């Protein structure tokens, strides 16, 4: 399995960013790390090993991107600055990572995937840009970071504005009525995976209900137990990526 390391200075984020690439061909996958984690964690957790047969067969090529969650959602800056930094990260993905992938891989299609907060990143960016992505897989994620839950705080301390609204799928998805956007979303291959005992179960069920209300096809898979650990994600990626 080919493995390549890349690093460049991001003019958008004004810092160096790193990416690990696994494979040479196949549909490219942008794999977002878990909360405040890094581009190498999925490799260390053997999740990339679980994908090795698909990567070596040329079915997918995986791009493990880095996170700046500690500078956005989990920073001590004012809430408006937190969401602003997140939007810069999204811009980095769209304007730096995606073109980087397109130069390396001419295969049509682009998958967004992630676990835990990485699942939020994947689903949020794919729902906002359904013409860029063709498939999204969110595993063990929550889709409303403003909702306090057991052991998980409101990441904006009660603050709410338009930028936050348009980056919380459980807020903006139910209100979508634009026919063009709905057609684009209905072409997106959407998979949500969550554990039955996961704190985020209701969050996922709410998003699934909202997608049903606007007639957007998707799959919601509920696993036994909490299923919010690398040993579960190793099995999930085999099935859904």
From TrEMBL:
Give yes or no: UniProt keyword Mitochondrion.
no
- The keyword Hydrolase is annotated on this UniProt entry: yes
Q: Which domain of life is it from?
A: Bacteria
Which Pfam families does the entry mention? Esterase (PF00756)
Which keywords appear in this protein's UniProt record, sorted alphabetically? Hydrolase
The record's InterPro entries line, in alphabetical order, gives: AB_hydrolase_fold, Esterase-like, Mycobacterial_A85_antigen
MF terms in GO: hydrolase activity
Protein name per its UniProtKB record: Alpha/beta hydrolase-fold protein
Q: What is the lineage of its organism?
A: Bacteria, Pseudomonadati, Bacteroidota, Cytophagia, Cytophagales
């Amino acid at each position: 399995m080919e493995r390549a390391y890349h690093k460049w200075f991001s003019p958008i984020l004004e810092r160096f960013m790193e990416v690990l690439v696994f494979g040479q061909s196949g549909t490219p996958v942008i794999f977002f790390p878990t909360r405040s984690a890094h581009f190498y964690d999925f490799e260390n957790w053997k999740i990339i090993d679980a994908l090795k047969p698909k990567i070596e067969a040329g079915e997918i090529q995986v791009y493990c991107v880095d996170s700046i969650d500690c500078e956005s959602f989990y920073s001590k800056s004012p809430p408006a600055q937190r969401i602003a930094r997140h939007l810069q990260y999204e811009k980095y993905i769209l304007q730096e990572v995606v073109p980087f992938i397109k130069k390396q891989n001419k295969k049509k299609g682009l998958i967004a995937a992630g676990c835990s907060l990485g699942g939020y990143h994947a689903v949020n960016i794919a729902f906002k840009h359904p013409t860029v992505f063709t498939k999204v897989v969110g595993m063990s994620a929550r889709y409303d970071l403003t909702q306090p839950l057991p052991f998980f705080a409101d990441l904006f301390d009660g603050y709410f504005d338009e930028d936050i609204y348009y980056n919380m799928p459980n807020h903006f998805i139910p209100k979508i009525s634009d026919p063009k956007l709905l057609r684009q979303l209905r072409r997106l291959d959407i998979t949500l995976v969550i554990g039955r005992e996961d704190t985020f179960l209701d969050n996922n069920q709410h998003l699934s209900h909202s997608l049903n209300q606007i007639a957007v096809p998707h799959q919601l898979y509920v696993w036994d137990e909490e299923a919010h650990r690398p040993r579960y994600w190793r099995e999930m990626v085999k099935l859904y990526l």
